[in-house]
Design a protein that fits this description.
heterotrimer, A mainly alpha, B alpha/beta, C mainly beta, B: alpha/beta, Oxidized Rhodanese, domain 1, 45% helix, elongated, C: mainly beta, Immunoglobulin-like, disordered C terminus
């Protein structure tokens, strides 16, 4: 990022930059941990996805091998601040879909014993899952809105500089 | 380098494909892509037929479907009359045999349930579920 | 701009839900049959909240053990009805999930999956339900562990063998758990026995099987003579 964009960051927010970095790192750590847990046992994760009874088995099994790595790489993107906005967007989309699937499963009365931490969270109840997922979603949306604003401003400045 | 949000997301999505595909290849023997039963516990009609006399065929369908037609030599073992039929099956079973359980088609669950009970409750080894079930047997006849 | 997008999305959602024909009270029913029940029946109630009659094209169940019946082939607008799903429990155990897939000619809701979940109480958990010895194998006792469910306390277990060639001894190991040691008199013949397991005071009977198989026992690694060190 250029100094011009760094200046914009300080101008657009009264909260110190390091606080946002801490939030970045915490969210990234959560997703990297969640992804790693699921990547260690993708077969179990495939069964956990199948429990939601939303997707056909083949699609769910494919996602079981892909999604954990997506979480890990997007978490890393947040930490190293490369492809940051893309990482934020994907994680926001993932957690949103997951929230909808979890609520739908609950409404359908399915006995789902995994949340975003795969089988490691099998002893959590529905409220615990929902709370964590909502907190993550909230934090991601705030980061997204904040970064989106900075990104658009930076993009504009970079474009103006080039013309 | 300037990347739009969509570009960034696409790059991350593409990066994630590589280890995902690698893992899928590594785990290919531990997962069946057609059904939730592990690959090591699924068997095709061709494979099961090749076992010849070493295979003991189990029909997990309801009594009336078994009576209509079944794999020659198959034993009926369903969850409607489990307590009554299990001892009859066990009388024919021996440890060196491979058990092949089938129901009507790939989508039906009865064969998986019977296989699960033979494995967990009776603690039998070499229990397999026939891919495609009775439908597949008829196609390959 | 954002307000327009929000309004448009909301309108689309309202339009879709307004067009919906059949509205179901529940698409998932959980039943808790008793140990004596032979069937678990779920009533899936619906109402045609649309402006056109809805016709059922097909009603399919996930297994032969479940039957589903519609009261009517066509549901006029405003009318209510139900699909009755009857699950024959048989000798199934544990939590059973069966589905009924309903297809209609309502374009907003072509396919609906109704789920019937039956939690079948299991008074006793017997592991394993089958013990065997190969021919010529040493006739040592093998153990069957019986665990009583928390909702079904069992004080005493009565175990009888259908064949005098097998002996069964019961021992209570505490906390609702029992050990049945089964021992054959000899393993030279292919013989079998059905073990009848009955909790005290319960009319329900459980079974396990003991057998000498026709195949010879698998060879075991030779044990060194006592006192010999390598």
């Amino acid at each position: 990022m250029t100094s011009a964009t760094s200046n914009i960051k300080y101008q657009t927010s009264n909260i110190p930059q390091f606080v946002w970095r801490i939030v970045d790192v915490i969210i990234a750590a959560v997703f990297i941990y969640a992804g790693a847990i699921k990547a260690l046992d993708p077969v179990q994760f495939a069964h956990d996805i199948d429990n939601y009874k939303i997707l056909p088995w083949t699609v769910g099994a494919g996602l079981a091998f892909y999604l954990p790595w997506l979480e890990i790489f997007c978490g890393l993107a947040l930490i190293v601040r490369r492809l940051y906005l893309g990482g934020l967007s994907i994680l926001t989309a993932l957690i949103s879909v997951f929230l909808v699937a979890t609520i739908a499963a609950k409404v359908r009365g399915l006995d789902i014993t995994c949340g975003c931490f795969g089988h490691a969270s099998q002893h959590w109840n529905f409220s615990a899952h929902l709370t964590l997922d909502l907190l993550l979603l909230g934090a991601l949306i705030i980061l997204l809105l904040r970064s989106g604003r900075d990104f658009r401003s930076a993009w504009q400045i970079l474009n103006d500089q080039e013309t | 380098m300037k990347f739009s949000l969509a570009c960034q997301a696409l790059i991350l999505a593409a990066f994630s494909l590589l280890p995902g595909v690698g893992q899928a290849i590594y785990f290919r023997d531990k997962i069946s892509w057609q059904s939730p039963v592990p690959a090591s516990e699924m068997v095709t009609v061709v494979q099961a037929r090749a076992w010849g006399g070493n295979a003991i065929w189990v029909d997990a369908r309801p009594d009336n479907e078994f009576a209509r037609d079944h794999v020659p030599g198959a034993l009926s073992l369903n969850e409607d009359r489990w307590g009554e039929l299990l001892p009859l099956f066990l009388a024919e079973w021996s440890p060196e045999k491979k058990i092949v359980v089938y129901c009507s088609s790939q989508g039906c669950n009865a064969s998986r349930e019977v296989a699960r009970r033979l494995h967990n409750e009776a603690q039998l080894k070499n229990v397999f579920v026939l891919e495609g079930g009775w439908e597949e047997w008829l196609k390959k006849k | 701009m954002k307000t327009h997008i929000f309004a448009l999305t909301l309108s689309v959602i309202i339009c879709i839900t307004a067009r919906a024909g059949l509205k179901w009270d529940q698409t998932m029913i959980e039943l808790h049959p008793t140990a004596a029940d032979k069937q678990a029946i779920g009533h899936f109630k619906y109402q045609n909240a649309g402006s056109k009659p809805v016709r059922f094209k097909s009603v399919r169940t996930s297994c032969g053990c479940t039957a589903a019946q519609t009261q009517k082939e066509e549901v006029p607008e405003g009318e209510k009805g139900e699909i009755t799903a009857t699950f024959n429990i048989g000798e199934r155990t544990g939590t059973q999930v069966k589905t009924v897939t309903v297809e209609t000619d309502d374009p907003a809701n072509v396919t609906t999956v109704l789920t019937l979940k039956a939690v079948i109480p299991q008074q006793l958990e017997i592991t394993p339900t089958f013990v065997f010895w190969g021919q010529g194998e040493a006739p040592k006792p093998k153990t069957i562990v019986v665990r009583a469910a928390k909702d079904f306390p069992v004080k005493h277990l009565k175990v009888t063998s259908s064949s005098p060639d097998f002996q069964a001894k019961v021992e209570e190991t505490g906390d609702g758990q029992f050990k049945i040691d089964v021992q054959p008199q000899e393993t030279t013949r292919s013989i079998a026995s059905t073990l009848t397991i009955q909790p005290e005071g319960s009319p329900k009977i459980f079974y396990a099987t003991a057998r000498i198989t026709t195949a010879p026992a698998a060879p075991t690694a030779p044990t060194p003579p006592a006192g010999q060190t390598h």
